[in-house]
Design brief:
Low-confidence stretches: none
Active site: 100 (electrophile), 172 (proton acceptor)
Keywords: Cytoplasm, Gluconeogenesis, Glycolysis, Isomerase
Structural class: alpha/beta
CATH superfamily: Aldolase class I
Distance between the termini: 18 Å
CATH topology: TIM Barrel
Largest sheet: 8 strands, parallel
Pathway: Carbohydrate biosynthesis; gluconeogenesis; Carbohydrate degradation; glycolysis; D-glyceraldehyde 3-phosphate from glycerone phosphate: step 1/1
CATH architecture: Alpha-Beta Barrel
CATH class: Alpha Beta
Mean pLDDT: 95
Organism: Hymenobacter tibetensis
Enzyme class: isomerase
Bound molecules: glyceraldehyde-3-phosphate
Number of strands: 8
Order of helices and strands: EHEHEHEHHEHHHEHHEHEH
């Protein structure tokens, strides 16, 4: 079912101690300030080594959830340095970010690998937050829709209807990530509507209307309200601003 979600992707930031302090500030502020029938789900995605401890610090409420930033496509075994979906599940993770542009770009994750990772995540009962998004070059060449359509088709739409029900999509224009250059709310809405249309074609109208589609790319306390007011924007995947408790809380309050 479609939910409003604000997910904080800490990327490779914070130490263990700083991470614990940050999550404690966030949970206190959110509990104090976000009252009433606010349906926003908050997903905290810290680095792997802090997952278990941060998971324990999340209040036992249905609002807070733990997420990982990546996971192996392999189930278990001799894969030095890898972390499996089952391991993530065993420390309390519910979500896993997959296909982030930084993974695609710096670690050469392609559609084939991402398809395997998706299967592994779903098999462990976790929910993927599957990222798509175009480069500046692609946008300037007017190829945004073709490019994103292909990312969805090749990377995601091989899933069965039942598998797809677990998926959250994040639209993250690469040119907006960490640049301070946010997509306008109209640009975000246009792509989100396109993604929803593609889901309806690949699955059906119900799947399209039930899928949460998050925006990511320099979202902050100032622009979140405008972005989240768009009919097809169901929340955000927040990088830089998720490392500041006040900013992250304000983003959560922007619904
Ligand atoms: O996963 C988060 C996105 O890459 C956005 O990062 P940012 O908010 O720092 O631009």
């Amino acid at each position: 079912m479609r939910k409003n979600i604000v997910a904080g992707n800490w990327k490779m930031n914070t130490t263990y101690q700083d991470g614990l302090a940050l999550v404690s500030e966030i949970t206190n502020m959110v509990q104090d300030e976000v009252t009433g029938p606010n349906e926003v789900q908050v997903v905290i995605c810290p680095p792997f080594p802090f997952l278990a401890a941060i998971g324990k610090q999340l209040p036992a409420s249905s609002r807070f959830h733990l997420g990982a930033q990546n996971c192996s496509q392999k189930e278990s075994g001799a894969y030095t340095g890898e972390v499996s979906a089952k391991m993530l599940e065993s420390v309390g993770c519910e979500y896993v970010i997959l296909g982030h542009s930084e993974r695609r770009q710096y670690f050469r994750e392609d559609d084939e690998l991402l398809s395997q990772k998706l299967k592994a995540v779903l098999a462990a009962g976790l929910k993927p937050i599957f990222c798509v998004g175009e480069s500046l070059e692609t946008r300037e060449a007017d190829d945004t829709f073709t490019f994103i359509g292909k990312q969805l088709q090749d990377g995601l739409f091989h899933l069965s209807n039942e598998e797809f029900e677990q998926v959250v999509i994040a639209y993250e224009p690469i040119w907006a990530i960490g640049t301070g250059k946010t997509a306008t709310s109209a640009q975000a809405q246009e792509v989100h509507a396109f993604i929803r249309e593609q889901i309806a074609r690949a699955y059906d109208a119900e799947a399209a209307s039930n899928t949460s589609i998050l925006y990511g790319g320099s979202a902050n306390a100032q622009n979140a309200r405008e972005l989240f007011s768009q009919p097809d924007v169901d929340g955000g995947l927040i990088g830089g601003a998720s490392l500041k408790s006040r900013d992250f809380t304000e983003i959560i309050k922007s619904f």
